[in-house]
Amino acid sequence: MGIWYSDNHTENVNFSLRINKQLYSVVSEFQRIDILKSVDYGKVLVADGDLMLTEKDEFIYHEMITHVPMAVHPNVKKILVIGGGDGGVVRELIKYNTVNTIDVVEMDQLLVEVCRKYLPKIAGSLKDKRVTIYNEDGLRFIRSKTNEYDLIIIDSPNPFGPGEGLFTKEFYGNCYNALHSDGIMINQNESPFYEEEAFQCQRMHKRILETFPICKVYQAHIPSYPSGHWLFGFASKKYHPTKDLNAKNWKSKKIKTKYYQPSLHKGVFALPLYVEKLLKDVE
Predict the structure, then answer these.
(1) Nearest to residue 63, comparing CAs of 255, 200, 237?
(2) For the segment 185-195, what is each residue's pLDDT rounded down to a tens digit?
(3) 186/70 Cα distance (integer angstroms)
(4) How many Å apart are CA 275 and CA 270, to the nearest integer?
(5) What backbone torsions phi and psi does residue 278 show, to the nearest 5 degrees?
(6) How far is Cα of residue 80 from the mean position of the Cα atoms in its chain?
(7) Is the torsion defined by CA of 254, 220, 155, 4 positive or negative?
(8) Which partner for 125 in 43, 79, 90, 273 could form a disulfide, CB atoms 3.0-4.6 Å apart?
(9) What is 129-180 written as a DSSP string?
(10) How confident is the model at residue 156 (pLDDT cuts 50, 70, 90)?
(11) What is the DSSP letter of 225?
C-alpha cells in the first residue's frame, strides 16, 4: 500500500496522497511544519497536519488571489500580504514591474526558511528587492497602518486556532483604514461545499460586507483543497471587480500565467446558485 498522507476535509471525508517520503519535519514556535514528497502532486507543505499547498496545483490559488485585483486596480504601487510565508503570492506580484513595495507579514520565520529551502521555485520570490518580511502578528501589524496600501492580500490559514484573529470585524476594519481611498482587499474565503466551511464563508462575507462599500465573492477550482471548490473575497473602497476590469491594460503587461486570464475574470464572479443563496442569507 505504501505511505499515505490524508488531509481531513470533514470528520467523514479525507483527501489522500501517496507519499514517496517525508523530506523534512520541524516544530516551530507556532506550528509543526512538514514537507512531503508525493507521487502525483510533487512536494506538499503541511502545517499542523493540514495541507497548505502542493506543487501541482498551488499556481491556481496564488494566481487567482493576485491577478484578479491587479487587473482591476489601475495603479498598484504598495502592497501588503498578510500570511504568504510560502512566497506564492509574492511570486505572482513581482511579475509586475509597476509595483514598488511588497510588505509580507508572516509570523512564523521558520516557515519562511523551510519554504526557501524545500520550495525554492515558490519561495525564491521572497528575495526580490521590493519585498520586506515582518515576522509579526498580522492583527497587531495592521493596527498601526493608515492610508498606506493600494492592495492588501490576506493569504491566511484556516479561521480557527492561531489565525482566528485575521477573520474578525476589527481586523477587516483595520485593513479598511490601512488602504488608500481606492484600495482593494482580497481574502481567501474557504470552500462553500461542506457545512462547517460554508459557515465560515458566511461569517467572513458578512463581516467584510459591513466594512467595505463593494464586496463580492469569486471562485476557483483547486483540486487539493476541500471539495476542490474554493472562494475568494473581493472588497474595495472604489473599484468594482468586473465593471472596472481593464483587460486590455492587463494584457499589455504580458504577465505569464497558467490559470488566470481576463476572459475568465468576469466568469469567476458568476457563482453557483447554492453559493449565491449561502451569501444572500447573511447579506
Answers:
(1) 255
(2) 999 999 999 99
(3) 11
(4) 10
(5) -55, -45
(6) 12
(7) negative
(8) 90
(9) TTEEEE-S-HHHHHHT--S-EEEEEEE---SSGGGGGGGSHHHHHHHHHHEE
(10) confident
(11) S
Helix axes 273-280, 195-209, angle to 10 degrees: 50
The angle at the Cα of 52, spanning 283 to 254, to the nearest 5 degrees, equals 80
- Tens digit of each residue's pLDDT (9 = 90 or more) over 70-94: 999 999 999 999 999 999 999 999 9
Other C-beta atoms closer than 10 Å to the C-beta of 177 total: 15
Q: How far does CA 84 lie from the centroid of its chain?
A: 7
The single residue of 50, 108, 155, 281 carrying the catalytic annotation is 155
Q: Which of 96, 67, 81 is nearest to 132 (CA)?
A: 81
The per-residue pLDDT for 2 is 72
C-alpha cell at 91: 511570486
Is 155 an annotated catalytic residue? Answer: yes
The answer to whether 89 and 103 are in contact (CB under 8 A) is: no
> pLDDT tier at 168 (50, 70, 90 boundaries)?
confident
Cα 5 to chain centroid, rounded:
23
Q: Which of 70, 62, 63 is nearest to 184 (CA)?
A: 70
- Our CA angle for 255, 258, 262, nearest 5°, is 60
Q: How many residues does the chain have?
A: 283
| Cα distance between residue 99 and residue 89, in whole Å | 13
CA distance 141 to 138: 5
Whose cell is 483587460? That residue is 247
Residue that the C-alpha cell 519562511 belongs to? 112
* Section 142-147 average pLDDT: 96
Give me the residue label for grid cell 482591476.
Answer: 72
